[in-house]
Design brief:
This protein has 15 helices and 16 strands. By secondary structure, it is an alpha/beta fold. The strands form three sheets. It has a ten-stranded mixed β-sheet, with helices on both faces. The protein has a four-stranded antiparallel β-sheet with strand order 13-14-15-16, covered by helices on one side. It has a two-stranded parallel sheet with strand order 3-12.
Length: 525
């Protein structure tokens, strides 16, 4: 393979040489890439990001070896579109996958294809969620659609088959099996390990059902947000109070079907909805945990504020149980890499396809350009590289060029993201370039599907967030993130902000022109 990277101090020297346009020497151990991505994992529930709700020791292990990005964002906070941005290094309008009603065009350029052409083995295991089948991979073993937590169906290189067990464990099993028995140890590899977890409906591994049962979680300060001055926030349908379903989301379905949630389509399914894919032993363990909770819930007969606060606690316990399983399986991957001598030449990445609301604004889900869903955790550990944090502004369109540069593969000019490899190596070169790209562009499209979050685009600077909702809601919103990090006070109509707004709109227009987003020709201020 051309331009393969070598390990330790030689690795950093090779990277420095490449940055100066000099060829790198082929080494005995070219750089591998293990890319672990979850679905809807909030940075608020990772201990190295400061979580006090839970502890994630294995994800923290990655951070202890590398760089934790503190200003990491997505380009479109929705599962399929986010994955397409990551694969292509391009915004949604450029890769064609703007929302989950689309099908990913597998004929287009992706970074796994470029790595494969350079001699890498590529494997995609776990959640794909791009409708079309994967291309550019030597091996794929993907969940169908959203995937199921228990006894899920996979598609292995075109063959559909059901596997017994819990999805997070199975995905890790398949990844380790590929590493151990199917790859060519003489070639570098890029392995995607994509977990369904912790996607709604947050079904825990059976061994974790009793975790956090005695825990009580503090309500976010803005849990009872009244959405003043934010019409799009008023019209969403993702509130824990009104939209989190007692049956579908929180599993409060009894055998007599006396409990009914918001989702009328589940009333005929009721008690059996969650058990439909479980065997008898799994059902018994599930019922042993949830039956007492259901009976206590019925006896309590909660309503109003007491009910919504109970829903929040139940949501948090199930979500954090699912995260506990993710963390345990990250540990399994790290242990394998250590035991097999792969740590010293493998770039390890941990991230999520977007952020998620842990009750902030009274919500669950994502989609908005507001901080909790726009931000995403991102940790990258490069062998022999920097250890610490980075505050550069980074988006998931930047992953592809970063991985390509790390592998010594030329980054095509049509990729819209920019490499942040210098943040991993600690090299000074490239910082000036990165500092000039301080503004990020966002565009969300999927409306009115499911949660009724209106279409919007916007610009995020280190201090300000300006967004434009369009369609049914036609409104600008502006936030000073230094004074208002929770996006509570829309100051767009403040006369004192006219000069700032003019400047931000000019910068927003530049980004839309830079990325050639057609919306700039359709919507003018």
């Amino acid at each position: 393979m051309k331009n393969a990277l070598i390990t330790g101090t030689s690795l950093l020297g090779a990277l420095a040489a490449q940055a100066q346009g000099q060829p790198m020497n082929n080494g005995e151990k070219p750089l591998n890439i293990v890319y672990i991505m979850c679905d809807d994992h909030s940075y608020q529930t990772i201990s190295c990001y400061g979580s006090t709700m839970n502890h994630t020791p294995n994800i923290d292990r990655v951070a202890q070896r590398g760089v934790r990005f503190t200003n990491s964002f997505v380009a479109n906070s929705l599962s399929g579109p986010s994955r397409a941005c990551m694969l292509t290094g391009k915004h949604s309008h450029a890769n064609g996958f703007t929302d989950n009603t689309k099908s990913f065009d597998g004929s287009q350029q992706t970074f796994p294809k470029l790595l494969r052409a350079a001699g890498y083995q590529t494997a995609m295991i776990g959640k794909w969620h791009l409708v079309s089948l994967p291309t550019g991979f030597d091996y794929y073993d993907i969940l169908t659609g959203q995937g199921d937590y228990y006894n899920p169906t996979f598609i292995r290189n075109g063959e559909e088959l059901q596997r017994h067990g819990y999805a997070t464990n199975i995905t890790t099993d398949l990844a380790l099996n590929w590493l151990d028995t199917q790859r060519d140890p003489q070639k570098p590899f890029c392995l995607f390990i994509h977990h369904k977890a912790p996607h709604r409906t947050w079904m825990p591994d059976l061994q974790d059902l009793e975790l956090f049962s005695d825990s009580t979680y503090k309500l976010p300060d803005n849990f009872f947000d009244d959405y003043s001055g934010r019409r799009a926030a008023q019209e969403q349908r993702m509130s824990i109070d009104k939209d989190m379903d007692i049956v579908y989301d929180l599993k409060m379905a009894d055998r007599d079907s006396t409990i009914h949630g918001h989702d009328k389509g589940l009333e005929s399914v009721g008690y059996y909805y969650y058990r439909r894919r479980m065997d008898s032993a799994q059902q018994a363990a599930w019922d042993k945990h949830y039956d007492p909770i259901i009976e206590n819930f019925k006896k309590a007969n909660l309503s109003g504020k007491a009910l919504v606060e109970w829903k929040f606690q139940q949501y948090m316990r199930d979500y954090l149980r699912v995260i506990h399983s993710v963390d345990r399986n990250v540990g399994r991957v790290l242990d394998y890499l250590e035991a097999n001598g792969l740590m010293d030449n493998t770039l390890i990445v941990y991230t999520s396809d977007q952020g998620f609301y842990m009750g902030e604004h009274g919500w669950f889900d994502k989609r908005f350009m507001y901080e909790e869903s726009f931000r995403t955790p991102l940790i990258m550990a490069l062998p022999g590289g920097k250890v610490g944090t980075s505050d550069v502004m980074i988006q998931n369109i930047d992953y592809a060029p970063t991985f390509l540069e790390a592998a010594g593969v030329k980054v095509p000019q049509d990729i819209q993201g920019e490499s942040v490899l210098s943040e991993l190596t600690g090299a000074d070169k490239g910082k000036a370039k990165r500092s000039s790209k301080r503004n990020l562009y966002y565009h969300y499209y999927e409306y009115p599907d499911e949660h009724r979050v209106n279409r919007h685009f916007g610009i995020r600077t280190p201090r300000y967030s300006l967004m434009r909702f369009y369609g049914d809601v036609n409104q600008w919103e502006l936030y000073d993130l230094k004074r208002d990090p929770e996006n509570m006070h829309n100051i767009y109509d403040d006369p004192k902000q006219k000069s700032l707004i003019k400047k931000l709109k000019k910068e927003l227009s530049k980004l839309q022109e830079q990325y050639d987003d057609p919306i700039r020709k359709q919507i003018t201020d």
